[in-house]
Design a protein that fits this description.
Protein name: Metal-dependent phosphohydrolase, HD subdomain protein
InterPro entries: HD/PDEase_dom (IPR003607), HD_domain (IPR006674), HDIG_dom (IPR006675)
Distance between the termini: 32 Å
Shape: globular
Number of domains: 1
Strand content: under 5%
Helix content: 55-70%
Bound molecules: fe (ii) ion
Pfam families: HD (PF01966)
Order of helices and strands: HHHHHHHHH
């Protein structure tokens, strides 16, 4: 499963990069919780997940990572929900990048994938006209940059 593989990858990446594995791990295990039908409010899973986590008292650092995961700001703009996302602080770049890396190098079935294949798969899954496809095309350079930055940080940390 995607979510558990992303969560496990986060725990490894956190150790490699000297980040808090409690915070990064929790954010990654929870990043797609907003897809749960009972939690849908705005219809954008990053915001709906963050709202739920804030409501139930999770650490704001985790809430902010879920809210902003994987270039959520661009999806919020596509959906006319940027003002809703503005309720959540942007996480520190190293954490935001790390969530994006774990999410975007893990396929829907939990297997490791390269980021370009992940982006292509999302486009195919949603189809050419879908809002998510428009979003992912806009987000592509930023998502790839985030993955590259994390790879560079991991290489530097292991050198
Ligand atoms: Fe997500």
């Amino acid at each position: 499963m995607h979510v558990s593989a992303v969560g496990r990858k986060a725990e490894t990446v956190a150790v490699e990069l000297g980040l808090s594995s409690d915070l990064l791990g929790a954010a990654c295990w929870l990043h797609d919780i907003g897809y749960a039908p009972a939690l849908v409010q705005t219809g954008m899973h990053a915001i709906d997940g963050a709202r739920y986590l804030r409501r139930t008292g999770w650490d704001e650092r985790i809430v902010s990572m879920v809210a902003h995961h994987s270039c959520a700001i661009l999806e919020a703009e596509e959906r006319g929900l940027a003002h809703e996302l503005a309720d959540y602080q942007r996480p520190p770049e190293v954490y935001e990048d790390a969530v994006c890396f774990c999410d975007m190098t893990t396929g829907p079935d939990g297997s490791p994938v390269i980021v370009r294949d992940r982006l292509a798969e999302i486009e195919v899954r949603y189809g050419p006209e879908h809002l998510v496809t428009r979003f992912i095309r806009r987000a592509r350079p930023q998502i790839i940059d985030a993955v590259v930055r994390v790879d560079e940080r991991r290489a530097a940390a292991s050198a």
